[in-house]
Specification:
Layout: H1 9-18, H2 24-33, H3 47-64, H4 74-80, H5 84-94, H6 98-114, H7 120-129, H8 132-140, H9 148-165
Helix pairs in contact: 1-3, 1-9, 2-5, 3-5, 3-9, 5-6, 5-8, 6-7
Length: about 170
């Protein structure tokens, strides 16, 4: 098990692309807090598509700057994310302990009553209950289901959809 931040984006992408789109706890959480898929005009149809499109966007953006986003530490995405359901989805799919997920659900309800849409306070609350090293350990406890080429293809499809719906995300 890793004790440090070892996971990079291209490896994380292989896991994300292989995870289910609609795990039950994430769907229930989104419906309860009314944030995420189907709320506030979001472009994505699942948190999986949200992750895939975001990674595709960042890969394309960094490429225009001559940088390789694939080797970026996955923890950097985790720290920047404001969407509670997005972070929760990854933790649930990775198999993070149910007690931690339950504590995260309580935190999500609490922050959603204060601010009813994505906000930096939501990401902070999620990370307090779902620390990156715990999530990373859960992710890396199994082998990814997809090869990198398949994962990149899935990300490209999601990014194409994102760019078709949001002009500010076209690279």
């Amino acid at each position: 098990m890793p004790s440090t931040d070892t996971l990079v984006i291209e490896v994380l992408l292989r896991y994300i692309a292989g995870y289910p789109a609609t795990p039950p706890r994430t769907i229930a959480l989104e419906q309860e807090i009314r944030i995420g898929t189907g709320f506030h005009g979001k472009w994505y149809r699942s948190q999986k598509e949200h992750w895939l499109g975001y990674v595709g966007y960042k890969r394309a953006l960094w490429a225009t700057q001559g940088k390789n986003y694939d080797m970026e530490k996955a923890k950097s995405n985790w720290r920047r994310t404001h969407c509670f359901p997005l972070l929760f989805w990854l933790a649930e799919c990775a198999g993070v302990d149910s007690d931690l997920l339950e504590r995260a659900e309580v935190a999500a309800r609490t922050v959603a009553t204060v601010i009813g849409s994505d906000h930096p306070s939501h990401g902070k609350a999620a990370r307090e209950e779902l620390p990156w090293l715990v999530v990373q350990r859960a992710i890396l406890s199994k082998e990814p289901e997809l090869e990198l080429a398949e994962a990149r293809s899935a990300s490209d499809v999601a990014y194409t959809r994102l760019a078709s719906l949001r002009a500010d995300c076209r690279v």
